[in-house]
From TrEMBL:
GO terms for cellular component: plasma membrane. Residues 13-398 form the Major facilitator superfamily (MFS) profile domain. Gene3D superfamilies: MFS general substrate transporter like domains (1.20.1250.20). This is Putative sialic acid transporter.
Amino acid sequence: MSQESRRTSQTGVVLRLGSTQTLAWASSYYLPALLAAPLAAELGLAVTQVFGAFTLALVISALVGPAAGRAIDRHGGRAVLRVTNLLFAAGLAALGLAQAGWQVWAAWCVIGVAMGSGLYDAAFATLVRLYPVSARNAITGITLIAGFASTVGWPLTQWGLDTFGWRGTCLGWAALHLVLGMPLHSLLPRGQLEEAPPVRAESAPSAPDSRVPTQANAGNGVALVLAAVFAIAWFTSTAMAAHLPLLLQAQGLSASTALGVAMLVGPAQVAGRLLEFGFLRRAHPLLSSRFATAGHPIGVALLALGGPLGAWLFAVMHGMGNGILTIAKGTLPLVVFGAAGYGERQGWLMAPARVSQAFAPLLFGLAMAHWGGHALWLTAGLGLLALALLQGLALHMARRSAAVAPTSPRPDAPA
């Protein structure tokens, strides 16, 4: 395949996966925010029960992730993602037809399996199997598109609730997985479209262009560091998504100002991804990851020092950092470990993050109950811990790189 035709093929794949990721996130992760209250009211449940079922779905997704990634490594993403459309459709249909609390829990269990095998990690693994050398830009591309999942999903869900009720909304999302998601996934290529890079013995990235992955014998310690960093990042992002308006009000902002500041996080995430796609695209992912991880603690400091203006700066720094980290969770393991076995490894690396994500709203809510607006210092401290872990990892990789080639500095060693 010529370089031009390969780029055209990759663009089509990115558009398809970006569209199906938007559908998957809108119909699962962003669904309870609007659906929980009317569902609970009709079935006589507490809203906390509905969110409890959603928490269970996130835990199940963490358990499913490694097996789904292994299946993508072996068979490609086309087959696996098509199955996830059936799972999403079945779970959403079961939710729309539920008549009792246990049926709601059962439906979310099915949706949890679909989330574990059909959200970003599965899409990233699909791209890495298709494009083991140039997957970084493709990963950025689908996050740019799917970054608007809440922007698209919440209005569609609200329109469905107003027009068809919560049951009809669930059935409508289920139908979209069959009539839109399934055909788009069926158009994905079957086999690898790039020649995989050779496995190397060195323990650090070795290509002059840091977008090119190579096998790194990094060991379990590096994997644990990355898993901890991603768990911290997803705890913070989920806690902010659940509590940010009330948290800002606890900082002294009015309700309307707090809502306006919270709404700025989404556009800031997209801005961060555009920054990654442009200015940072040739930087080592460890550099962009450290920059992104520092965003939330810096934002908290600006909020503490700057009053109302600091709140807007906080939203920008937190949102941009979170947007870049969404990409880094796919590209950093690719550069550190290489493309071989990427899907299964990604499932294990992200399992702690999914669990921390599941319990973040509850745990941070307890922190707010005890400390009020000062609870932000908890997530700021966690962000500094993640930054320290990444800095230690960068120094470790630089030392290993120097040990491989002690007489001349490597052009791609993490800065």
